[in-house]
Amino acid sequence: MDLAYLADDVRAAEAPLLAAGVPLMDRAAYALAVRSVAVLRRARVPVPGARVVVLVGSGNNGGDGLHAAALLARRGLAVEVVLAGSHVHPGGLAAVRAAGVSTTELAQVDEARLHRADLVLDALVGTGGDGSGVRGAAGEVIGRLDALTGRRPLVVAVDVPSGAGVDDGGLRGPVLRADVTVTFGVATPGLLLPPGDTAAGRVEVADIGLDLGAASPAVERLTGADVRALWPVPGSRTHKYTRGVLGLVAGTARYPGAAVLAASGAVRAGVGMVRFIPDEPVGTGALAAAVLAARPEVVVGAGRVQAWVAGSGVDPDDAARRVDVATVLAETRRGVPAVLDAGALAAIDGPLGPHVVLTPHAGELATLLTALGRSATRAQVEDAPLAHARAAHELIGATVLLKGATTVVVGPGVVLTQADGTGWLATAGSGDVLAGLLGALLAGCADRIANDPALPARLAASAALVHGRAAHTARPGGPVAALDLAQALPATIAQLLTEAPEQGRGARVGGRSRR
pTM for this structure? Predict the structure, then answer.
């Protein structure tokens, strides 16, 4: 599991080490120099003579950059330091001068030379970043650098891309997007939270000896090992009922595909049985026929279930489906776990427990919050996804899975994010498959959910991880259709359950390469 801690907790962990004279800055600078060289090598840039520009602000973040600049110069790289802070770290400044590194004030910088650099080390603003961006002349310089098309220097950020929100991932002003962010000791939340994680690129955590002690992580990200530990794997005495029976209210005559995809997601994820609730009396409707044609294992009609999925492809104005969704809501108030997706979100009329998982996208979450009296727009949700997902959790009590390029999950006392997929997942029906997949997990773990209020959040994050990996399995590097995604679930899950434990997870937290 990858963990991120609030900046105040990181500073508190650093304080006793600094008081004891532990050379944290030396350790950080060495790690930064080593990883910067590795970035150049991965890009096949010859290291001796590589042109490096270090953008330096005030404070310890700038000190890390200065000391790293001195180390890189001693390795034969052509290093230039641009001083953007009014009071740069004196020890770091002495180090670069001793190494013969030239320094330039920001006002005199040759931007053309900056743009031609092989690598830019961004040490302007560190863990004090509040998400408002880099202000003033420095913001203008990095804005022009960030806007370059064609050839652009590799960018390595120190701690966090300058100007990004260290604790909330906010991007509300000029930020220099990084190819790699090197942070020290532990990650901070903004590196795992959207939209900030999109600016961080690959996140690498360098061990400098911090001990967070009793501090609680602010954000978690599951790895394959975590999902393996959670996944309900059948044993020799298992039968279809103990593996979980999932009730499904999905689709209408207008949107029959949603029912097929949700059922396929659940079946292919390994649920014991799917009971499909049709929109017409059993045996008379085209919707049930479509589901059975695609998935003959499905049982049409009501019966006892361990969990529900409701809402995929459901029009809130459909009178018959409104009754079906109301039945599911009544079941949840008796403690039955459920996934409420799409059309079922509009039916929420009161508090729900964390055993209910809401799966909105940004627009649906904005609509739901507005209906609950907290006005929000899609753009506002996209700018601050954690704040809005947390607001919905606090208002309703349910676990919230906010879909997006990075999925955000909020449950009782826990926040998780997953970024395991690909942009090709943004396709019609993908969310229906996720709803069925998550429903299968809830049904298979229903007995455990009753005793662990945070478990649905971890299962939701597990479903997001598997969903993302299935896209890679279905069409590596290319377009993926929703039905392809469902078809890829068994192979994805099998690989997940049998793969060797991840190696070196402490060296990399996650994120995407920007290049």
Answer: 0.93
